[in-house]
Amino acid sequence: MVSPKPTLALIRTLAGEGDFHLYRLIAEGKAGFVFLKCLRTTLSYAWLRGGISDAETVAFIKGPNQLRLFQNQKASLEAEFGKLQAYTSPRANTKMHQLALPRFAIRHILFQTYYLLLMLVTRRARYLNLFLLHFFAAIQISIDRGFASTRNFICYNDQPFDVAAIIAALHQRADCRTIVIQHGLVLSEKFYFPANAQEFWAWGELSRVHFQSRAPNGKMVVKGRYKDDLESKSDIFVMPEEGDKNWKILVAPSFKHDEIKELVGIAKKTFFPKGKSFDRMAIKMHPATKSVWMIKLWLLMTARGIVIERAHMEDLSDQYDVLFTKHSTSAVDFLLRGKPVAFLTLVSGATFPSDKYGLSISQFKTPLQTGKYDIEHMNESRIKFLKCALNV
């Protein structure tokens, strides 16, 4: 077993997920959650299929949303880096490789599990530190074997500590470039992880407000999102006509069940006061939503006919006329196409969600009283937001 060096900078890097999120969870009495989260990550490197990459450029993908983003950007990445190799976790639901790194040896797993158990029993962060250091030592061995040829490492934000460990191990080489590509609107500096990459490729200038790099010379580069965003952009705000009651409504909540029920309830009262048919209304679940079967059962009892959409938001924003949400990134695709977005909460003067281009759910009427809105001013604010957020 490689003896890990207990440097303060390394510990902060590994525990820096979500602004030292792991430490805060322990302080809040959620050591059990931290234990399960870290153990699951460790075991994924023990049980899942690994391998050795001979590619100079590697894209490391975790989850279906990141896979979708990668597929939309693959041509651009290949134009810049040439041939690349992509590795995904099982959560991405794909036949591609699962994990690029060779599996951890059993002795590594035993060390890590031992310190996690001590952390769970004592609730002391020092044992979390020891776990992270031993995890890093095992990652380092896997990197030396699995990514020996890697000179460009690409990943996405909103990833756990294991990717930060991979990046830290790669930085021990002088010739490896590490890049994090923005995934979703990032509205708080607490969610920029891993933040130890050399470059953060942002959608637009809005990201600069919250960008915080822990790399000594880390920089942010505005790259935009998709190439076809410019083609999808509408120059006008496509507001429905007075008296039009045939809108197709999409609800895009967060992963919280209470928010789902609240948004659906408001949409029902607004558009279907008699509750006869909900065939023009659908829900796009947040990828992190747990126990979706409970929501399906609730819909069956209270709003039969409302369907759960599984298509990507880029497609759904073409199919539906209006979006109901709290502050989901899904609003970007509707605003890009000039379609109205009704937010649960609007903050005056905020960049997102803003009352300058967004509609308030509490004031939403059908048929929409378009005369009460300054459509031209809203459209100017919408275009300004898209320039700031997506660089289009």
Describe this entry's structure for a reader:
The chain is α/β, with parallel strands linked by helices. The protein folds into two domains: 8-227, Rossmann fold; 232-390, 3-Layer(aba) Sandwich (Rossmann fold), CATH 3.40.50. Helices cover 40% and strands 12% of the residues. It is built from 13 helices and twelve strands. The chain has helices at residues 8-14, 21-27, 31-47, 64-81, 106-122, 125-146, 161-170, 229-232, 257-271, 292-302, 313-319, 330-336, 375-390; strands at 57-61, 85-88, 152-156, 177-181, 199-202, 219-222, 249-252, 281-284, 307-309, 322-325, 341-343, 359-360. The strands form two sheets. A six-stranded parallel sheet has the order 2-1-3-4-5-6, with helices on both faces. Strand 1 (57-61), helix 4 and strand 2 form a beta-alpha-beta unit. Helix 2 (21-27) packs across helix 3 (31-47) and helix 6 (125-146) packs across helix 7. It is globular. The N and C termini lie far apart (50 Å). The mean pLDDT is 84.
What structural keywords apply?
single chain; 392 residues; alpha/beta; Rossmann fold; six-stranded parallel β-sheet; 40% helix; globular
